[in-house]
Protein 1
Amino acid sequence: MKTNLELSESLENYLETILDLEKTSKVARTKDIAAKLAIKPGSVTGALKVLGEKGLINYSPYAFITLTPEGKRIALDINHRHRTLKYFLHEILQVDVATADATACRMEHAIDPESLKKLICFVDFVRECPRTGADWLDHFSKYCRSEQVNREKCSSCLKKLPAKIEEK
Amino acid sequence: MKTNLELSESLENYLETILDLEKTSKVARTKDIAAKLAIKPGSVTGALKVLGEKGLINYSPYAFITLTPEGKRIALDINHRHRTLKYFLHEILQVDVATADATACRMEHAIDPESLKKLICFVDFVRECPRTGADWLDHFSKYCRSEQVNREKCSSCLKKLPAKIEEK
DNA sequence: ATAAAAAGTTAGGTTAAACAAACAAATATC
DNA sequence: GATATTTGTTTGTTTAACCTAACTTTTTAT
């Protein structure tokens, strides 16, 4: 079954899409996969055969498509990378949500495990650390527009910080 | 000349490599491009023709290869994306430098202009804002290992912060 | 100055991923 | 339950990017 563990970007996208369709429609259909990936149904069939041979989906012609346990494990992993990147782009960098989603979809194939782990940790840390968190992200947002920090304001901002630890 | 503005990931890598070789050796040679990209020289020739047709490099058989102004502009842009991502991965997320470089090399083709702009801004902001900066990154590093924040320590950390504004 | 070595190119082949269009199966409708 | 529609598959092509191996040009060394 496990012909080759290395999945191309394209095959990763198929798995991700199938997972997504399983969630919303219980089952994935060729037509819907094609629609989501903006490709023709004929191209989908070819990919499904490959995924079937790799043991990642249950595929037989004309039947509904479902992920195998191994396929699901991989799909969830891809989805996790996607969500992490999207969260970082949208919630931290404040990139608009559609762009964040599209870029996450491309970057998810490029990120390595170490960077992903650190990114997850970073996102948590920004949230957890009293020195950062939501209000700090607001400051970032303003900085993005003005491209500079105001030392006057920094001074008063810093003074208000000790109160933050109480809130938690 | 400008046959098509959209460059594949592969062609972007060629341009980036040529820029790199121009910097170190004044000129790029087929053999060196092949070595850097870990592909065979025969494959390089094909790509060079395409880049030549697109007006991005000065290419004629057996001659040295140089970037045209347009090619250089694009190569510098790719390089900029690469450096930004590498900086973020290595200096902020503290991913080891070789991994950061390799991942940046893959992500540079996936990031969109808005996300790049925000990322550049973010990296600056982390450096500029008195609430973050180098010592905050040390805290992140510790957090990465322990996976939790120590509220006791947070309290004393916050109290030391106002002094930070003076330093700047 | 020429022969050997190195570098570069060409030609033909492979693979992955898409396409279009003809065809087959399944589902829905009357 | 027959037929029309929808859905899915097959077949044959295309394209990009690589490969190998033969060949050509350039460079180096004697």
Note: The mean pLDDT of chain A is 91.
Protein 2
Amino acid sequence: MTTRIQRRNRRRILDAALDVFSAQGFRGATLDQIAEAGGLSKPNLLYYFDGKEAIHRALLTDLLDTWLDPLRALDPAGDPQTEIMAYMRRKLQMSRDFPRESRLFANEILQGAPRMESFIRTELRPLVDDRAALLRAWATAGRIAPVDPYHLIFSIWALTQHYADFDAQIRMIRGDGHDPLDGADAFLEELYARLIAPAPQKAAAGPRAVTGGA
Amino acid sequence: MTTRIQRRNRRRILDAALDVFSAQGFRGATLDQIAEAGGLSKPNLLYYFDGKEAIHRALLTDLLDTWLDPLRALDPAGDPQTEIMAYMRRKLQMSRDFPRESRLFANEILQGAPRMESFIRTELRPLVDDRAALLRAWATAGRIAPVDPYHLIFSIWALTQHYADFDAQIRMIRGDGHDPLDGADAFLEELYARLIAPAPQKAAAGPRAVTGGA
DNA sequence: AACAGAGTTGACCATGCAGTCAAGTTTCTT
DNA sequence: AAGAAACTTGACTGCATGGTCAACTCTGTT
């Protein structure tokens, strides 16, 4: 049975750990930093979790479902363009609401995803394959432009998470008063509206081979 | 004066250090790992560089110019659409040729860019501002679609670097035999061709503000 | 009040790691 | 060949860090 104090302290620890892990990476983070940030002593922290690994694992598992939800919510019965735009919007909202979580993931993946490999292979991959098949079907039916479905999904990840993951760089470039996400909505709306709209002028082939690539 | 042995060993060390730093981040990397990867002893490594920081700094400074070159090469006198597409292609090629360097940067920026702040503020920012002004001028002149120039630049960074930085994830999703960059060229060509093409039907104003953003 | 169990922590330990150093070996120059 | 300079390294130091533990305090229950 979990007590009131347990709930409060576990939450404190995980919140502090998210701050530290997302900013320093797993190896860069120290238990002392997490304890300090959470306002507890290090032994107390280890009273609630079995070790550094365990804290990190708890953060990741808490997060995995949240991370899949936007893609899960992509409705095969909905209007293709509306659904894709809505997915992009949800992912962008996640960069706004959960930038630390995004950076936690980015850190993990940058280092080869050692602690997420099984999640990616057994949960993310089948879901992506399924949604890619859906996107391909929509493209084949002419309801969206015939773009590669995997690259379409990756592009949404890249463009939305970039605002959370590279926040520091964007702030240094745009100036500290500027919110990196200002104008991102409008830009991405326009980008995906143009990208997935079914070809209006079907005869116009580009001057370069578009499908080339080794 | 630098000897033959110095040149060889410095190169070995930097190459090994790039492997290790890009895969583990600064704090995650150890001098022993770098020495091991480079086939030298740790004291020998410290004979050539003044410390861990110095090796990392040498890697970054070696890289900064390379990193700016693609954007520098964007020619104000060229055809806007051709120039932007060529910039995107150069950046994508860098993800292909220098994935470790891309991950080294990503690691740094994820952690708040502590060792790159002055570079970003004094070199990257003015260059980006300059090129953003150019893109804005092109948009105002109706030579490309009226998209926010900063977000356009950021989108190119996000989309191209994603293939290097999130390589591990893409491989796990697409299967190990699949090259993450397969088809990326074609996809990004299509995406940017559609995004920056000046509006074909000029009367049709979009339902949402496209140029919004401070 | 008083007891049990939950919660807390200062002091400590073992390991990992950046960096040093003295003593060695190799390479270059003449 | 031989001396100088460049190069190399085993052994070591000091500090940071993950984790432990015995002793302590607080909280809830009767």
Note: The CA atoms of residues 70 and 77 of chain A lie 16 Å apart.
